[in-house]
Amino acid sequence: MTAHFVFSSPAEAVAAVGRKLGPSGWLVVKQDRIDLFAKATGDHQWIHVDAERAKDGPFGTTIAHGYLTFSLINMFLPELIEARGMKMGVNYGADRLRFPAPVPTGSRVRAVGELTTAEPIGADAVQTTVRVTVEIDGKDKPACVADIIGRFHF
Fold first, then answer.
1. DSSP code string of 75-130
2. Of 37, 59, 76, 142, which sits with the fewest C-beta atoms within 10 Å of its C-beta?
3. Which residues are CB-neighbours of 111 under 8 A, at least 6 positions away?
4. CB atoms within 10 A of CB 43
């Protein structure tokens, strides 16, 4: 799938600050993905992995871990932005991570974004910040909002 915004130089990224990105395609968050995340991270809290107990819990079903939802951003980003012809790209970090709403098992989620900053680093690199919002189909509040920082070397 082609990204919504493709840039080939630091100058192109800088010129695009403020550009809206997305949406990505939808992804259904299934219980098996939640269970695998629990296994990988050791977070087996019942609201994530015990469907029977979760029926009587605050959400009426199991919910995805917040950090699982956050980690899905890495899957959605290539649909939002692409640094074509780069020699190397690195995840530099994230700022302002928030989880405004839970993701009930079986929900569809997708990402939208905005290129909020792009700063040249020397002559051949750029540091970008993309504010990524993970939306839940049919819900008013997003599941996750994070400012994702990347560095791209050309």
1. HHHHHHEEETT-SEEEEEEEEEEE--S--BTT-EEEEEEEEEEEEEETTTEEEEEE
2. 59
3. 22, 23, 24, 72, 73, 76, 77, 79, 80, 132, 133, 134, 135
4. 15
Give residues with Cβ within 8 angstroms of 137, minimum separation 6: 26, 107, 108, 109, 110
CATH number at residue 115: 3.10.129.10
pTM beyond 0.85: yes
Strand pairing report for 5-7 and 81-83 = parallel
Return the number of other C-beta atoms located less than 10 Å from residue 150's C-beta.
Answer: 19
Which helix (H) or strand (E) element contains residue 148?
strand 144-153
Q: Which two tokens stand for residue 84?
A: 């074509």
Structure tokens at 148: 């994702």
* Domain around 33: 5-153
